[in-house]
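Thread: Newbie trying to understand structure tokens

Hi all, I'm a second-year student working on a class project, and my supervisor (Dr. K.) asked me to get a predicted structure for one chain before our next meeting. I've only ever worked with sequences, so writing a 3D structure as a token string is new to me. If someone could post the tokens and maybe explain what I'm looking at, I'd be very grateful. Here's the chain:
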Amino acid sequence: MEHIFDTTSLKNDVKLYASALSSKYASLIKSIVFHEQIFRPDIVILSDQGLDLNEYKKLKRYNDHIINSLTVYYNKSGKDFGETRVAPVKYIVK
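---
Reply by user tm_fold:
Sure, no problem. This is what the structure looks like when written as tokens:
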């Protein structure tokens, strides 16, 4: 849905969309970095509401050597970005 409606206004800036099963973002990021040889990417995660921002802070801290930046969006209007009504809230993880 996000690729179609572009509520985050990132569609023209994104070079690669990837999906993780559940919240296994660390494995997905490492796979992209090492197998696709995309080094120090700027990562954007469209998160479910149920995932705490502290988990993303840990993800950034433990993988800071392979990623440049991490930005997380939550859907204020619903559980995730598969909804038709999306109100994105942006957090830059430091």
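A couple of things are worth pointing out once you decode it. The helical segments are 2-5, 25-35, 53-62. The chain has one domain: 2-93. Feel free to ask follow-ups in this thread.
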